[in-house]
Design a protein that fits this description.
The structure holds 2 protein chains of 2 kinds. Helix content of chain A is 44%, strand content 12%. In chain A, helix 5 runs parallel beside helix 6. In chain B, helix 6 crosses helix 7. The chains are: A alpha/beta, B alpha+beta. Chains A and B meet through loops of A and helix 9, helix 12 and helix 13 of B.
Chain lengths: 231, 393
């Protein structure tokens, strides 16, 4: 089976090697450790030698390019101004990006589509809904999974680092990148790399709203692909 | 001042309009798959004019139709039932006609005036061979007429109100068959406008007053800056010749209509229609032969015109040049039920229900793009299934 995932780089989903293989980034490491992923893995009869789960890696640049091209395929009309005006946000927004991502994921016959992106600010619900909508445009309904850490993926890693205690607070850290309380800066100060933290983490123990939402949606997606695997 | 207009029509047993209910706005754009009945709707509105004028036979022969073509797939039922709601000078009226497609005249007619403070008033009644005006004494009908009885009664008998109602329906003009071949023809006279197919264009233009000619020249120049003017001249024998004078690099070129581009003639014909005092103007596939650069002007011209217009179109581009608020009320989706009857729904209401269009798409896209995002064939299918379900209940 194929799972498409939106990726930004080595510190989240990972990078593609020259031979097309994927070097797992910390977020992908967490996904592969989820109980539900493991159940799917054994249900499909995967082993170390034979893994039938294929990650379809779709880089954000590719999505933006595709989005750009697709928005040019519009008819002339009274809304021509949208190309230079505030309407542009609609074209660049989460809806449009996730819709383009879903389009590319469908093109490569993906069974599940995970749209990974940082919240960066406090509009989780809004971004979540827009992403869901974008994914559903290409029939990723239950199989479309928003993966949206609040504030950024490091918030989830900080939960691992601190033995899963009171993790809700990591979602409330500052968004100011220069502040020592910015999640990335706290992680740096800990002396551990993203990979190290992820490798030593049990994501099934993470309890924080944005991660719980992702874990539930992922479960729903797997169950919709093979009924009852993750009950 | 509200413009005089047709608000709603319900037709039973006219061609594919087995039982069809349509709400119109100031501009109405009919869209839908081929063969669903868009043109039939336009014909039905034009038919109202023929009934009101009492010229049903002429209307049939102009189209090459027979009486039996009038009813739903040659239905044995002869009566065509038409109910019209319209507004004149801000007052709402209803005209109910039962029209016999064999004798080509109304067998029952009512014109009802809706008044705000008192009861509805019947200002014209025709029942069982008697007629009555303004609820006065019934008069026996001992004369012949075709179409509506309005056409047979003298204007002093009808009175101002019924006269202006009849005038409103008489003045519906259809240019639904605008054809390049016909428009290029020379014509003798055009007392009833440019004709269904534009065949009297040259005579119509020739008869325009100087003022109107000037306005038309200006509007035409607005579309085609290199066109200086159009000229009409009377030939011996009364035929009118039409030609356009163009300016290319200060060189004046006059071209006879015989050799003019179809699109230029079409735009000229449409603009000429819009200059008239006619009440409702009807155009079928208005975008035919018109370059995309002119579509916006054409749409703006229709929207700004003081006429109510009724247009059938297949062009997403044309719809894309409608402002959102106008598009929402004016685009009508035409489809057919399982038994072949034509139905009409407001396009935006329907896609909100079945189209799976997100809020973002409504913000982002024009009506034409939305039309392209919806599969009209599937939409027709869903609607006709829904219709079937309602029928079986």
């Amino acid at each position: 089976m194929k799972i498409a995932i939106r990726a930004e780089g080595p510190t989240d989903i990972g990078v593609l090697a020259f031979d097309g293989s994927l070097t797992n980034g910390p977020m992908l490491i967490l996904i592969e450790k989820l109980d539900c992923y493991q159940k799917l893995y054994s249900e499909l009869g995967c082993t170390d030698e034979y893994n039938s789960i294929e990650w379809v890696y779709i880089h954000k640049k590719k999505i933006e390019d595709s989005s750009e091209k697709r928005k040019q395929v519009v008819l002339r009309g009274k809304k021509d101004k949208r190309k230079e005006s505030i309407d542009t946000t609609l074209l660049k927004g989460f809806y449009n990006n996730s819709e383009s991502f879903a389009f590319l994921a469908k093109e490569q016959d993906s069974d599940i589509a995970i749209f990974f992106v940082d919240t960066d600010n406090d509009v989780f619900e809004d971004r979540y809904q827009q992403t869901k909508l974008g994914l559903s445009k290409h029939n990723f309904n239950d199989t479309g999974v928003p993966m949206i850490p609040t504030k950024i993926s490091e918030s989830w890693l900080l939960c691992c680092l601190n033995k899963y205690k009171n993790c809700g607070k990591y979602e409330k850290l500052t968004s100011t990148k220069t502040s020592p309380q910015y999640p990335k800066n706290i992680r740096k100060a800990s002396g551990f790399s993203e990979h190290e933290i992820a490798q030593n983490c049990d994501p099934n123990k993470i309890n924080m709203p944005s991660f719980n939402r992702f874990r539930e949606d992922f479960k729903k997606a797997v169950n919709s692909y093979i009924k009852g695997v993750c009950e | 001042m509200p413009i005089n207009m047709l608000k709603r029509i319900r037709v039973k047993n006219f061609k594919s309009l087995e039982d069809t209910d349509i709400n119109f706005s100031k501009n109405s754009f009919l869209i839908g798959m081929n063969g669903t009945g868009k043109s039939t709707i336009l014909q039905a509105i034009d038919f109202l004019s023929a009934i009101s004028l009492g010229e049903v036979e002429e209307w049939l022969s102009a189209r090459g139709w027979f009486k039996k073509d009038l009813t739903f797939y040659g239905n044995k039922k002869l009566i065509i039932d038409i109910r019209v709601e319209f507004e004149l000078e801000g007052v709402t009226y209803f005209w109910i006609i039962l029209f016999n497609s064999q004798t080509l005249k109304s067998t029952k007619e009512l014109i009802i005036k809706r008044t705000i403070d008192s009861e509805d008033r019947t200002i014209l009644g025709l029942i069982n061979g008697y007629y009555s005006i303004n609820e006065a004494k019934r008069e026996k009908i001992n004369f012949n007429y075709k179409g509506s009885i309005l056409s047979a009664l003298k204007s002093d008998i009808l009175g101002d109100e019924l006269n202006s109602i009849q005038h409103f329906f008489n003045e519906i003009r259809s240019a639904e068959l605008l054809s390049p071949i016909l428009m290029k023809k020379r014509a003798r006279e055009a007392k009833d406008g440019i004709g269904l197919g534009g065949e009297k264009l040259s005579a119509f233009l020739n008869a325009l007053s100087r003022d109107k000619k000037e306005i038309l020249q200006k509007e035409l120049k607005n579309f085609f800056p290199h066109i200086n003017s159009f000229e009409t001249s009377s030939l011996r024998s009364g035929w009118k010749k039409l030609s356009l004078v163009e300016n290319h690099n200060n060189k004046i070129i006059e071209t006879d209509s015989m050799h003019l581009s179809d699109g230029v003639l079409r735009i000229l014909a449409i603009l000429a229609q819009l200059l008239t005092t006619n009440s409702i103007l009807i155009f079928d596939e208005i975008e035919d032969g018109i370059n995309q650069e002119f579509v916006e002007k054409l749409v703006d011209t229709l929207v700004e015109s003081p006429h109510q217009t009724l247009v059938a179109t297949h062009s997403p581009l044309l719809l894309n040049y409608l402002e959102d608020d106008i598009a929402r009320e004016s685009i009508l989706f035409v489809y057919k039920t399982k038994n072949g009857g034509t139905k009409v729904e407001n396009f935006f209401e329907i896609i909100e229900k079945y189209g799976n269009i997100s809020e973002h798409e409504y913000d982002l896209f024009g009506a034409g793009e939305l039309m392209q995002r919806v599969n009209l064939l599937e939409l027709s299918d869903k609607l006709s299934k829904e219709e079937n379900r309602e029928d079986s209940h």
